[in-house]
UniProtKB/TrEMBL annotation:
PANTHER family: EVC COMPLEX MEMBER EVC, LIMBIN/ELLIS-VAN CREVELD PROTEIN. Residues 31-41 have a biased composition (Basic and acidic residues). The keyword Cell membrane applies. Coiled coil: none annotated. This is EvC ciliary complex subunit 1. GO terms for biological process: smoothened signaling pathway. Residues 98-108 have a biased composition (Low complexity). It is a single-pass membrane protein.
Length: 477
């Protein structure tokens, strides 16, 4: 306390610094603020700390961090601090520093230690996380019939598959819209030609074949990536998933670049192969590019909305999977509760002298073995019957999807046959996009309906087995 009072006196005697004398208004503001701060602290701090608090407040206000002269521990100033500020300090070099700078260096050292330890811990946690293994699933009903799996990771892997399917659907829509836009541009370029003209069809067929080859090449690459490192194992690690997703992204980006490169080659193709004038080919490319940019905008908006829909479906799947998991855990919990009730009953009989200790232990062992055998039998039966339900559900879903796909293809053909794209290209593109988007949503709804149906079937299977086990348990008791 005495040292603090001496420091405070030295500070008051040396309070007139160059910064303050050159700026009286700033000094008055600081004094007013300092008095207010001191009064506020005096009200809430005990008297024994008032001098220390006053010193801290004065040091903070009178000696800002960027000032040349700073107070040392004895109250004096060290002008060399400012001169040597930019010099590097060696690890064992003795330096004179203010209390604030010492505290800063200590806190910085603590931060460095914490940062290094947290980095090591983070790296270890990441490695451990990426090595987690979970079941390889291709459809949600497969998750329902699994036993002892990481449900969350299975659901998340299905979500990544949904996003990949969405990307495929949007890419196919982009190709279909490109063909329709190219048709309109050709009709503008060749007004005397009809849509069934040989030259017209030859030009159009070339682009359709190029797009088909582009899509086939991409699907081969995606399939090879999916099969790489899979082997015969039914399980996969998060590191494998991360690696595959990175490769998927690179392949999709390469495909996107190849598509736009193919579109850029149309102008040379028209000039070289069909002797079209450069001006007309250039005008076609400008119109084609402008309309394709508009189509990309529609697809981008659709992608954002349907990605949110995919996330909502994933949350619903997680909920349904947790319901099934809860029912399976309930079977084990009921088994433990029954065993606990039997144990208490045998304890009571033994305390009344109706059972010997040996008889009690034998009966308890027999009941324990019988109950857990029944629980294991339930688990095996559930897995087997659940797999049968899943197989039937997936077969039903494939059949329904095939029928819906055929109906949607017929709907697209009817729409394109009745539409007149050259009359109003913008309205035509929006209407065609709405048809394709509605068809995608119908596909998703069909899949979700089948998922709900499969979940309800598995829930009924669980409840039926649990009722049978309860009846068997009552007879045993």
């Amino acid at each position: 306390k005495d040292d603090t009072q001496n420091l405070l006196k030295n500070l008051e005697s040396n309070a007139q610094t160059p910064l303050e004398t050159g700026s009286p208004s700033r000094r008055r503001k600081r004094e007013v603020q300092m008095s207010k701060d001191k009064e506020a602290v005096d009200e809430c701090e005990p008297p024994s700390n008032s001098n220390i608090t006053a010193f801290a407040l004065k040091a903070k206000v009178i000696y800002p961090i960027n000032q040349k002269f700073r107070p040392l521990a004895d109250g004096s100033s060290n002008p060399s601090l400012h001169e040597n500020l930019k010099q590097a300090v060696l690890p064992h070099q003795p330096v004179e520093a203010s209390p604030s700078s010492s505290l800063g260096s200590l806190s910085q050292g603590e931060k460095d230690d914490c940062s290094s330890s947290s980095s090591v811990h983070s790296a270890t946690s990441d490695d451990r996380f990426l090595s987690r293994t979970f079941l390889r699933v291709n459809a949600f009903p497969e998750v329902l019939a699994c036993e002892s799996v990481d449900i969350d990771l299975c659901i998340y892997s299905l979500h990544l598959k949904d996003l990949l399917h969405l990307d495929t659907a949007l890419r196919q829509e982009k190709h279909m819209m490109f063909i329709q836009i190219f048709k309109m541009c050709l009709l503008d370029l060749l007004p005397k030609k009809k849509s069934d003209d040989e030259l017209y069809q030859k030009i159009l067929s070339k682009q359709e074949n190029d797009l088909e080859d582009l899509e086939k090449g991409l699907q081969v690459k995606l399939s090879n990536t999916e099969m790489s490192g899979a082997g015969d194992s039914e399980y996969i690690t998060l590191a494998d998933v991360e690696k595959k997703e990175r490769e998927y992204s690179e392949q999709l980006i390469d495909n996107m670049e190849a598509f736009w490169k193919q579109m850029a080659n149309i102008q040379h193709f028209l000039v070289d192969q069909f002797k079209c004038s450069s001006s007309k080919a250039r005008q076609l490319m400008m119109t084609l590019t402008e309309r394709m940019i508009a189509a990309e905008g529609l697809l981008c908006d659709s992608q954002e909305l349907q990605a949110l829909d995919a996330l909502e479906r994933t949350m619903g799947r997680a909920h349904m999977a947790k319901v099934i998991e809860f029912l399976k855990l309930q079977v084990q919990e009921e088994t433990r509760c029954r065993l606990a009730a039997i144990s208490r009953g045998l304890e009571l009989l033994a305390s009344e002298g109706k059972l010997s200790g040996r008889q009690k232990e034998e009966l308890l062992t027999q009941q324990h073995k019988a109950f857990w055998q029944e629980a294991e039998h339930f688990s095996r039966e559930f897995v087997q019957r659940g797999k049968d339900l899943v197989k039937a559900s997936l077969a039903h879903q494939v059949e329904g999807t095939a029928k819906l796909t055929l109906a949607q293809e017929e709907e697209r053909r009817s729409f394109l046959a009745e539409a007149q794209p050259t009359a109003d290209p913008e309205t035509f593109l929006k209407a065609f996009h709405e048809v394709l988007e509605r068809q995608r949503l119908m596909q998703c709804d069909l899949e979700e309906e089948e998922n709900v149906r499969a979940t309800e079937a598995v829930v009924a299977l669980c409840q039926k087995a649990m009722r049978r086990r309860r009846d068997t348990g009552k007879e045993a008791v």
